[in-house]
């Protein structure tokens, strides 16, 4: 597109040629000048377009990163064979855990199936295949909970830093320490019964994305 000054030059040349009889010797230099002006403007227009595209790509990547960082979710299965040592039981269950964007609120639901005399449920700190101390309580009652005909919700709600049980010997001094262990996969949900006070069913808390990656690797093998 011609600049305003270039357009004015062309108009001027045409008017002069028509009304004052200017010949080609006058018109051609003016047209050449207008063309040179247009060519000089092209690199600036191209740079502006590239900058706009780059800025759009930057905003898109930022939004994607923000979307991925909104929440951290866990959906795990609780079984007796994950206990250490393993427990032979028909009981099983599920736990859903979600960490808020600001990392200050943990929402949860624990569902148990075919289990009797549940007395407590917690998050423990510890890697898979190891036992560790309680750091966050989910359920505790002097009256045992039973679910003998299918599945029932044992406990649900939210937990905040004031509910944390510090365990300096396990490296958990603050809520941040707990969150770091949670994200690293070094925590697990445990369900305790009168028959198995150390825990009858449990499941390692692994973020959903990591769990999907593990399943993809196993399917490739």
Multimeric state: single chain
Q: What helical percentage do the residues reach? A: 25-40%
- Note poorly predicted spans: 17-22, 52-68
| Share of residues in strands | 25-35%
How is the CATH topology of the largest domain named?
Immunoglobulin-like
Tally of DSSP β-strands: 6
Task: List the helices and strands in order.
Answer: HHEEEEHEEH
Tally of alpha and pi helices: 4
State the CATH class of the largest domain. Answer: Mainly Beta
Total domain count = 2
Mean of residue pLDDT values: 79
Largest sheet: number of strands, sense, barrel closure: 6 strands, antiparallel
Task: Give an overview of the whole structure.
This protein has helices spanning 4-19, 24-68, 175-183, 208-220; strands at residues 72-79, 92-99, 106-125, 134-159, 187-193, 201-204. It is an alpha+beta fold. Strands 1, 2, 3, 4, 5 and 6 form a 6-stranded antiparallel β-sheet that branches. It is elongated. The two termini are 59 Å apart.
Task: Write the SSE topology.
Elements: H1 4-19, H2 24-68, E1 72-79, E2 92-99, E3 106-125, E4 134-159, H3 175-183, E5 187-193, E6 201-204, H4 208-220
Antiparallel strand pairs: 1-2, 2-3, 3-4, 3-5, 5-6
Helix pairs in contact: 1-2
Comma- or semicolon-separated keywords:
221 residues, alpha+beta, Immunoglobulin-like, 2 domains, 4 helices, 38% helix, elongated
Compose a concise summary of this entry.
With 221 residues, the chain is of the alpha+beta class.
């Amino acid at each position: 597109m011609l600049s305003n000054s270039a357009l004015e030059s062309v108009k001027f040349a045409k008017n002069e040629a028509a009304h004052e009889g200017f010949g080609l010797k006058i018109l051609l230099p003016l047209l050449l000048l207008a063309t040179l002006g247009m060519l000089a403007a092209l690199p600036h227009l191209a740079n502006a377009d590239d900058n706009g595209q780059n800025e759009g790509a930057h905003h898109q990547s930022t939004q994607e990163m923000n979307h991925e960082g909104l929440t951290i979710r866990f959906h795990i299965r609780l079984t007796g064979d994950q206990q250490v040592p393993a427990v032979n039981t028909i009981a099983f269950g599920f736990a859903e855990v979600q960490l808020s964007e600001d990392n200050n609120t943990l929402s949860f639901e624990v569902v148990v199936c075919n289990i009797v005399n549940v007395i407590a449920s917690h998050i423990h700190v510890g890697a898979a295949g190891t036992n560790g101390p309680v750091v966050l309580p989910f359920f505790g009652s002097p009256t045992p909970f039973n679910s003998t005909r299918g599945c029932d919700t044992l406990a649900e709600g939210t937990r905040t830093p004031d509910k944390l049980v510090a365990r300096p010997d396990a490296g958990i001094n603050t809520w941040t320490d707990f969150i770091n262990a949670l994200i690293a996969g070094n925590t697990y949900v445990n369900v305790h019964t009168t028959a198995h006070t150390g825990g009858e069913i449990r499941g390692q808390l692994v973020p959903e994305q990591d769990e999907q990656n593990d399943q993809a690797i196993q399917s490739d093998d």
